[in-house]
């Protein structure tokens, strides 16, 4: 579920991004990271790890 449009609408209405994120249980860092389209450090590490796991699994099968 993509809640970014809802958060953006609340921001345009003058509501606090901090409060909206708290109510929706979304971190502000995740909201702003998703908004910029740049993956965070953890997402990059997860992608690398997933690739390594896939390689290891395919070599065992």
What does this protein structure show overall?
With 61 residues, this protein is mainly alpha-helical. 75% of the residues lie in helices and 0% in strands. The chain has helices spanning 4-12, 17-24, 28-36, 41-60. The mean pLDDT is 85.
Strand content: under 5%
Mean pLDDT: 85
The description of the largest β-sheet is: none
Structural class: mainly alpha
Shape: elongated
How much helix is in the residues? over 70%
Radius of gyration, whole Å: 17 Å
Beta strand count? 0
What is the H-and-E element order? HHHH
Short description:
Helix content is 75%, strand content 0%. It is elongated and about 55 Å long.
What is the element layout, followed by pairings?
Elements: H1 4-12, H2 17-24, H3 28-36, H4 41-60
List keywords for this structure.
61 residues; mainly alpha
